[in-house]
Amino acid sequence: MQVQGWGKCAGANLLPPDNHLGPENISRLLLLAIWGENPSGLQDLLRLARIGRRRGAARPGAGQGRGARRRTNIPGMCAPPPAVSVILPCRNAAAYLPACLRSLSRQTFGDFEVLAVDDGSADETRVALAAWQQRDPRFRLIEQPPLGLVAALNHGLAQARGAVIARMDADDIAHPRRLELQFSFLESGGAEVVSCLVRCFPRCQLRLGMRRYERWLNSLLTHQQMERDLFVESPLAHPSAMLRADVLGSLGGYRDMGWPEDYDLWLRAYAEGLRFGKVSRHLYWWRERRDRLSRVHPAYSPAAFRRCKVHYLKMIYLGGENVVTIWGAGKEGKALARHLRRAGVNIAAFIDVDPRKIGNTVLGAPVVAAEALTRDHYLLVAVGAQGARDEIRAYLAAAGWREPEHYRTMA
Question: N or C: lower Cβ tally within 10 Å for the chain?
Fold first, then answer.
């Protein structure tokens, strides 16, 4: 067998005459190595790569980042699946897509595909995605009618080829090393769900509540820290998450339950004994917009979050018990109590430190001082005042209470 211009295959030096590293040369060397005509073909390929780097020529995976595999179209051969599939749901995101897609295309870890699911956009989202797909074959446009976020996520998952799933939102920006560092963390086996620190932007639009949430979110790094605060709020920013596709499939994918789909997923994962972890670097820029879904859709309202919490609280901790004690007779405690009662859970008593409340009745249950607290019932801490959570935890720890065995912090 002989390749024109390269000399005889058996025992010959198969470097092309100009030592140029082009896609056709890579394909030939790989094919010859596979067919056994040139056992040293892979060494020749490495030699070509070294020559190419010295001359500034193209490299395998050039412009695709560290970890990229060259997917040469060889007739009769299928490209290998990527290591990571990025699920990118899009709805009317044309104004933000260029920055988002550019940040993904510049990842140092290049062995990925992006499944951009256009959820029935009315702007130029589809046009922007189609153009990017032509530019970079790692990006795939998937279209669907406007069925919503959960449907778009599951549509992307159904077509994902990677063993690992990463999330991203169409208006956000990824650090160049995001996929690399999160994939490395996941591969280390330290956690089944991996996130990172986030930076909300533009800073001038961040309200006090969002700034506090960002600080709290970034303070939770270990599984133990995230487990402890899991029923306070979502301890991971959903679009920054990465996990294995088979793990996500075993959890049932995403569900539309009338509450946040990401929080529902984390609570299911926790119930199954999965561990959370975070790369302790800011790798994700999370755009704050007043019109974003989590700001305007009822599934992300405080009431929807409480319904979700109560559902999993009953499933994980209460079992058949239908009576609890609540620490906090204020706004948070009363709101939680109402949702518990709708779910068939009664309130034995409220605990409070305000002498004006002690001795009164709230929603039919007595308000008593902390000194009257007993372990007759599971305790839920629902105090929204800043700093109160840590003070109550310290008090309970001194009294021998253990979280989550004896109580759960809910706010």
Answer: N
For residues 205 and 341, membership in a common domain is answered with no
- Residues above pLDDT 90, as percent of the chain: 77
Length of the chain, please? 411
Peptide bond into 98 cis (omega under 30): no
- pLDDT tens, position by position, 269-307: 999 999 999 999 999 999 998 888 888 899 999 999 999
**How far apart are alpha carbons 141 and 160 in whole angstroms?**
12
Q: Are residues 118 and 248 in the same domain?
A: yes
Nearest to 147 by CA among 121, 109, 168: 121
Backbone angles phi, psi at 222, to 5 degrees: -95, 165
Nearest to 224 by CA among 272, 303, 278, 144: 278
Question: Which residue's structure tokens are 């920054």?
Answer: 240
* 142 and 106 within one domain: yes
Contacts for 398 with CB less than 8 Å, ≥ 6 apart: none
Same domain, 143 and 252: yes
DSSP assignment of 14-83 equals ---TT----HHHHHHHHHHHHHTS-TTHHHHHHHHHHHHHHHT---TTTTS-BT-------TT-PPPPPS
Looking at the fold, whether 176 and 321 belong to one and the same domain comes out as no
Give pTM, 2 decimals: 0.81
306 is a domain residue: no
CB 240 within 8 A of CB 167: yes
Question: Quick check: is 70 in a domain?
Answer: no
Residue 68 in any domain: the answer is no
How many whole angstroms separate alpha carbon 15 and alpha carbon 5? 10
DSSP 231-300: TTS-SS-GGG-EEEHHHHHHTTS---SSS-HHHHHHHHHHHTT--EEEEEEEEEEEE--TTSHHHH-GGG
Q: Which pLDDT score is estimated for 78?
A: 67
**Rounded CA separation 311/267 (Å):** 10
* 62: in domain: no
Q: What is the spatial distance between Cα 10 and Cα 123, in angstroms, rounded to a whole number? A: 57
Say whether both 273 and 327 belong to one domain.
Answer: no
- Does residue 38 come out as left (phi exceeding 0), alpha (psi in the -120 to 50 range) or beta? beta
Q: Which of 6, 405, 385 is nearest to 227 (CA)?
A: 405
Q: Which domain covers residue 390, as residue numbers?
A: 316-409
